[in-house]
Amino acid sequence: MSNQQRFRYQDFTDPKTQLVTADNNQNAHDIYCPQLSCGCLLLRTSFGTLVERPKDKTASPPNDEKSDPNGTTNSKENINWNNTNGESTSQSNVEYWQLTDMMAFENIGFSKTIEETGLKYICCADCNVGPLGYHDTKAQEKEYLIAVNRVSYDVSSLISENIV
Known about the structure:
Oligomer: single chain
Pfam families: Mss4
Protein name: Mss4-like protein
GO molecular function: guanyl-nucleotide exchange factor activity; zinc ion binding
Keywords: Guanine-nucleotide releasing factor, Protein transport, Transport
Region (Disordered): 53-89
């Protein structure tokens, strides 16, 4: 994929229009690991639906912010998980790409379930960076959530049109 151009959420001038399809609120671009040095494709175009959820579950697991969901230190790129980009106008919500079937992912990893919360954190299957999102095993409806501001996007088509 020599033509691939990847950017993080904060690199977009208008993410609501550049990352979301106008007709069905789905991801308009392939979604990749946030580490630009990792080429792991996480989710193909139009497989995730933009939703808002409370940000209390978005916090990093109870270890270091730069640790992967399995507790090992991530010494690769410094990714700021606590930036506010991707938070909705409501201070208590965050935007996510929602999937209802884990088989819709191209490549993803999960932490062990955190006993106290029932959460499984989602990470990159290739480099273990995360958490990128979570799956609440105690929730009534099955959903897998990837934070819009914790991944990168292949926007080659936008670059060729000089939109980014």
